[in-house]
Amino acid sequence: MKRRFFISLISLLSLWLVACTKGGDLASPDGSTYSISSQLSSKKVFPALATDTSNGVLTGWYDEGLNDMSFRFAYVKDTTSIKLDTLKIIRFFKGAGAAIDTATAARRFFINTAISAGSKTNLTGAFSFGVSGNTGLLPDEQASFLAGTWYMVLYSAKFPNGVLGGQLAVTKNQ
Fold first, then answer.
1. Are 98 and 122 in contact (CB under 8 A)?
2. What is the residue-wise DSSP string for the chain?
3. Which of 78, 104, 165, 169 is the most buried (most CB within 10 A)?
């Protein structure tokens, strides 16, 4: 009985020591991580919104070894002409740029968040998303994503062709 208890105690201590990060930074198994960023604007959707001044920023990271992407999207929605709207979908396009209308859709995230500006002329908000493992990027998506050819578009009920868009910048971390 004592021997079984002693073996169990040693096993638990071993697992505890292996699981400890010792306060260091978490790292990818192969060290390949990337920073993701984008400056988004209503002027960068197709067709461009001439009178809307909405803008946003996307920041995040991608771990190539774990096939794990996480990002945060923050926006300022121009509500001078439309006070009520519903943000619907964030879509990523691969091989995109100026010809967003001919790009191939790669990923989409559903939001379905109603926004009401009331008497405000601008409304701010933020969302966080992520994909990983078997729901992460496919091999052809990964290649085009790391090459920096992806584009993001935010769609809403009032702007079904997109309210914000921008090219993703992917930078390998040291």
1. no
2. -HHHHHHHHHHHHHHHHHH--TT-----SS--EEEEEEEEEGGGSSS--SS---EEEEEEEEETTTTEEEEEEEEEEE-SS--EEEEEEEEEEES-SS-GGGPEEEEEEEEEEEEE-TT-SEEEEEEEEEE-GGGS--HHHHHHHHTT--EEEEEESS-TT-SEEEEPEEEE--
3. 165
Q: With a threshold of 0.90, does the pTM exceed it?
A: no
Cβ atoms within 10 Å of 65's Cβ, excluding its own = 12
Distance between CA 77 and CA 167 in Å, rounded?
19
